[in-house]
Amino acid sequence: MLGGLALGFGHFAAASAWWHPAGPWLLGAGLLMVLTGSAAGARGRGPLQLLRGLVALSGISRLFGDVLSYLRLFALGLASASLALTLNQLADQVSQSVPGIGFLLSLVILLLGHGLNLALAVMSGVVHGLRLNFIEFYNWGQTGEGYPFRAFRRTAAETEKEKQTGE
């Protein structure tokens, strides 16, 4: 990710070169670490290890998609801020154009508009954040950890054993 970031910053920089000098090295080192780190955990030798490393490299595109999904949260915040500015301008225009009662109308616009905007911002942030955590980044964790929950209760065998021993 750092190598891609360095390449991207170099591409959009005002410098004459389209890439940052460290970008290709960081990108190559990162890809090599993913390839060798994933291959080291594979069972067996030779082609099986290399195949597992190549499959791990294919997951990099999924990581890029996950990062782009987090940009959706930024877009939601930006849309909420834009809506707030629009509501402020609308209330100001109503207050100036309608003499007398315009102040009350602008107050209603501000209260209802910003209340709705706040509710939508909180709801969308929670919903999209949960979606990202539980759906997209869920597969980046380790699998097979823990044990299934078993409720605390007596089984028939334990009850029979207690009857026989007199406990």
Automatic annotation (TrEMBL):
The chain crosses the membrane at residues 25-42, 70-91, 103-127. It is a multi-pass membrane protein. It is found in: Membrane. Keywords: Ion transport, Membrane, Transmembrane, Transmembrane helix, Transport. Its main location: membrane. InterPro entries: V-ATPase_116kDa_su. It comes from the Bacteria. Pfam families: V_ATPase_I (PF01496). Belongs to the V-ATPase 116 kDa subunit family. This is V-type ATPase 116kDa subunit family protein. It comes from Marinobacterium aestuariivivens.
